Amino acid sequence: MNQQPTTAHWTAEDEATLLDTIDAWVERSVRPIAREYDQEDKYPHELVEEMKELGLFGATISPEYGGLGLSASTYAKIVTKVASVWMAPSGIFNSHLIMAAAIERCGTEDQKRRYLPRMAAGELRGGLGLTEPNAGTDLQAIRTVARRDGDHYVINGAKTWITNSLHGSAILLLVKTDPEAQPRHKGMSMFIAEKGEGFIVAKKMKKLGYRAIDTCELVFQDYRLPADCLLGGEEGRGFQHAVGGLELGRINIAARGAGIAEGALRMAVRYAQERKTFGKPICEHQAIQLKLGEMAARVEAAKLLVESAARAYDTGQRCDMEAGMAKYFATETGVFCAQEAMRIFGGYSYSTEYEIERFYRDAMLMCIGEGTNEMQRIIIAKQLVERNRI
After folding, report:
1. pLDDT of residue 245
2. CA-based radius of gyration for the chain
3. Which of 80, 189, 338, 386 lies at a C-alpha separation of 20 to 30 Å from 298?
4. Is the pTM of this model over 0.85?
């Protein structure tokens, strides 16, 4: 039976203290290395160790299993804060926590006890193994197959665009256990897959943005898993397990988009006061004021949509429409603000000495990941009609 993770009782004062701690960590440890690690596409091992100490790998995992038990609302604020300085590190714990949430929501009690405490401590770090070379938005088109062999399953296939797959130690792997099933989703299952023989990291992908984070292609060649690694212990539930985690995933991607937008706005406001043309700071030119005003309004609207979706998630309501709205608007706002900031910075925006170019490169990914924004609009429209039947 699916069950929402249990959140701890965090007072407003507790939340404020936590967010202040995250702010201090971001300024102390994240901001100073962002440009170097992004440019060199270098994995931030030291940052990961600090994330463990802060409890970020257990942020949304229930206290019962060693996590902080944060609400989606509080967690989204953390993601926004981190992404406002450097979006990429948020992916290290975000993908991990979506995997953890699926185990806590859908796993057997044995699976929860076996994996969640290790995940909360950052000892076991994971991600999601959904996408394949020919299957992204259409998850039912996957070709990776698991066949039962006694007390094990033997898995063959390939995955791509998998975050945390090089330096992480496990993924939640979506496969076909019955390739002939109709409808197709009834033949899909999920496995908690730790690295082992036959689990091959084929290559790390080179990317325009979202650098320093390991995004890889995976190959599974006669990869054997014990049958008790089947999530929930029942075949044919994989598609539901996967889409059930998309609401939280989309809220988190929305929070990243809002963070990118907020960070770009912050840099643009500062630069507009420092840069002078025609004898005065460019912030006094109406053309720049129009840009800053539009950016500021969109940033606040994006943050409010993220908060609205997170609160709906926390109450256990179905929130695919709210999550879709937040994901669509906040990520498009990230792109918009990064582009407008580039225009405000002018020629200097093309120099790697200014960090705005990184925000510009990172922003577009948020419109694609966790379901394209085209798909979000379709989801919103369908739910809008469904909830307002005449």
Report:
1. 80
2. 21
3. 386
4. yes
In this predicted structure, the answer to whether residue 20 has a pLDDT above a threshold of 70 is: yes
- Among 125, 157, 177, give the residue marking a domain's end: 125
Of 246, 382, 259, 245, nearest to 330 (Cα)?
A: 259
Q: Report the Cα 166 to chain-centroid distance in Å.
A: 17
> Whole-angstrom Cα distance, residue 345 to residue 349?
5
User: What domain range is 330 assigned to?
Assistant: 245-386
Render pLDDT for 316-360 as a digit per residue (tens, 0 to 9): 888 999 999 999 999 999 999 999 999 999 999 999 999 999 999
Can you tell me the distance from the alpha carbon of 211 to that of 166, in angstroms, rounded to the nearest whole number?
13
Residue 177 and residue 106 share a domain: no
Q: How far apart are CA 77 and CA 252, in angstroms?
A: 9
Say yes or no: 180 and 193 in one domain: yes
pLDDT in tens, 78-97: 999 999 999 999 999 999 99
E-state strands within the chain: 126-129, 145-149, 152-163, 170-176, 188-194, 199-204, 215-226, 276-277, 280-281
Please confirm, yes or no, whether 64 is among the known catalytic residues: no
Give the pLDDT of residue 318. Answer: 87
Q: Which residues have C-beta within 8 Å of that of residue 265, sequence separation ≥ 6?
A: 292, 295, 296, 299, 337, 341
Helix %, strand %, coil % of the chain (to 5): 60, 15, 25
Q: Which of 247, 262, 332, 370 is catalytic?
A: 370
Peptide bond into 32 cis (omega under 30): no
The label of the residue with tokens 């995250």 reads 22
Q: Are both 382 and 257 inside the same structural domain?
A: yes
pLDDT tens readout for residues 372-387 = 999 999 999 999 999 9
